[in-house]
Amino acid sequence: MIALIDYGAGNLTSVRKALSALGAPFAIPQTPAECAAATGLIVPGVGHFAATAALEGDWRRAIAAAVEAGTPLLGICLGMQWLFDGSDEAPEVQGLGALPGRITRLQGRAADRLKVPHVGWNSLDFTTRPNALLAGLAAGSQVYFTHSYAAPITGDCIATTSHADAFASVVERGRIFGVQFHPEKSSDVGLRILRNFLAAC
């Protein structure tokens, strides 16, 4: 059973539909303690990093304990940003700290008509790191983004995307995964990524 974490940061309908299309059993835990029984955790989200403050306390401890026990964790968009230490968007709010680094604002480029937020389809440029999340996909695959802040390119990065500057669009460390885009809105490529995560579960 996949635990889909609802902390009030966006509509979960599209993620639920994608999991249903893949035949994956899932539930929305009502208490942090329910995370312990999950075979995988998904933290989705859209909007401002301050919304992740709802995950402080018991939720953070329960998710961290599940990850420590080996349960796969996938962060989507804002959920991926929460995997890091924190974000300049809400400096007073701590991230999970499962991945090192800080989330910073994208820089637009007027000359290239690149605006922030970054909204729409863009490509994934794979790194050379072996990984599980992108198995079966071709470099340059297109996925759907909507965000103003992004993660740094670190050793955990398995794909980058460029919008004026390059940023980490997919990360993987052990059984911790993150995607800055919305796989549930990224057609067959997104479904393949979700399927790969489910296989890890």
Give the secondary structure arrangement, pairings included:
Layout (H helix, E strand, L loop, with lengths): L1 E3 L8 H9 L4 E2 L12 E4 L14 H11 L4 E4 L1 H5 L3 E2 L14 E4 L12 E6 L1 E2 L15 E6 L1 E2 L6 E7 L1 E9 L2 E4 L7 H14 L1
Parallel strand pairs: 1-2, 1-3, 3-4, 4-13, 5-6
Antiparallel strand pairs: 6-10, 7-9, 8-11, 11-12, 12-13
Write up this protein.
This protein has 201 residues and is an alpha/beta fold. It has one domain: Rossmann fold (3-Layer(aba) Sandwich), CATH 3.40.50. It contains four helices and 13 strands. The chain has helices spanning 13-21, 58-68, 78-82, 187-200, and strands at 2-4, 26-27, 40-43, 73-76, 86-87, 102-105, 118-123, 125-126, 142-147, 149-150, 157-163, 165-173, 176-179. An eight-stranded mixed β-sheet has the order 2-1-3-4-13-12-11-8. Strand 1 (2-4), helix 1 and strand 2 form a beta-alpha-beta unit. The protein is globular and about 50 Å long. The chain starts with a strand and ends with a helix.
